[in-house]
């Protein structure tokens, strides 16, 4: 294990919830600030996951400007060992380019972010799944750190784009994302910083054990439900780059849908506790 302490967002202890037996955490290890071993993520230490255990999954909808870059980054960072699954609703060359890069492509009528990402998460059977957008905004260089956190006992590792300021994000979206995090924190009683990030790592058993239903609000749901059920959920700061290609998000309608999901899911999870 490396001795270097990893960066935290300074409030990560809010995520230091004990992994319960119900939560099915591997060993209950939940130290946020303990040493991590990014390098170990790619080695094959006994019982530790490697990139051979990792699926990187995404919805893809007319992303021909970005898809080659995203898939090349995954390939380079994981030495070609991560499996890639794209659930695609495109009318452009995105699926061809994805296949040329060795991805598994599942075709699906476009029905929104969450419908595509649900299929993408549930399709592979590797034990660790990482979601990302196919727009070159998320840093695939963070994959080793995310896997190292899972090997350190995390059930969910969530990329916090706002920690570094997210200057590449449109100001309206940035404001909305701060507001979503504030509302979710209030309703959960736990501080979270980025509820709508597209880049997360999940232990497969977590996404199989909890029920999830949201579409545009899926990302928020998949942070809130595990956190409120006592899984070991950790936010980690990530870089965030300007998007290649056109957005598929309607900031007003999408924002309203996300706000509704946050309130609904938080209330459902609070009620579940009684
Ligand atoms: N298959 C499929 N993919 C979708 C659909 N809607 C969005 N996506 C993909 O889901 C990911 C997220 O969409 P984005 O347009 O990046 O949404 P966003 O991240 O909220 O907005 P940006 O800030 O513009 O990146 C992208 O990879 C899209 O191509 C859909 O209906 N079907
Ligand atoms: Mg995006």
TrEMBL record:
Pfam families: Glycos_transf_2
Compositionally biased tracts (Polar residues): 1-11
CDD domains with a match to the protein in the record: DPM_DPG-synthase_like (cd04179)
Span of domain Glycosyltransferase 2-like: 55-211
GO molecular function terms listed in the Swiss-Prot or TrEMBL record: transferase activity
Highest taxon of the lineage: Archaea
Keyword Ribonucleoprotein included in the entry's annotation: no
Residue span of region Disordered: 1-41
UniProt KW keywords: Transferase
InterPro entries found in the cross-reference section: DPhHxTase, Glyco_trans_2-like, Glycosyltransferase_2, Nucleotide-diphossugar_trans
Stated name of the protein: Glycosyl transferase family 2
Species name: Halorubrum halodurans
């Amino acid at each position: 294990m490396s001795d270097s302490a990893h960066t935290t967002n300074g409030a990560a202890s809010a995520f230091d919830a004990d992994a319960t037996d119900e939560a099915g955490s591997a060993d209950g290890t939940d130290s946020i600030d303990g040493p991590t071993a990014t390098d170990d993520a790619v080695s094959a230490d006994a019982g530790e996951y490697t990139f051979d255990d990792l699926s990187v999954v995404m919805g893809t909808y007319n992303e021909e400007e970005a898809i080659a870059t995203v898939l090349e980054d995954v390939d380079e960072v994981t030495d070609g060992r991560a499996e890639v699954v794209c659930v695609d609703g495109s009318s452009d060359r995105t699926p061809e380019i994805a296949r040329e890069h060795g991805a598994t492509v599942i075709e699906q009528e476009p029905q929104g972010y969450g419908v595509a990402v649900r299929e993408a998460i549930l399709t592979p059977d590797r034990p660790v799944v990482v979601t990302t957008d196919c727009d070159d905004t998320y840093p695939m260089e963070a994959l080793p750190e995310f896997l190292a956190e899972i090997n350190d006992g995390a059930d969910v590792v969530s990329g916090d784009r706002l920690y570094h300021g997210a200057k590449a994000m449109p100001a309206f979206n940035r404001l909305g994302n701060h507001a979503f995090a504030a509302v979710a924190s209030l309703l959960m009683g736990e501080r979270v910083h980025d509820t709508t990030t597209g880049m997360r790592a999940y232990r497969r058993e977590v996404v199989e054990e909890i029920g999830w239903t949201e579409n545009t609000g899926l990302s928020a749901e998949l942070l809130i439900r595990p956190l409120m059920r006592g899984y070991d959920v950790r936010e980690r700061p990530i870089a965030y780059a300007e998007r290649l290609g056109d957005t598929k998000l309607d900031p007003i309608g999408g924002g309203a849908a996300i706000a509704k999901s946050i309130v609904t899911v938080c209330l459902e999870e609070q009620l579940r506790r009684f």
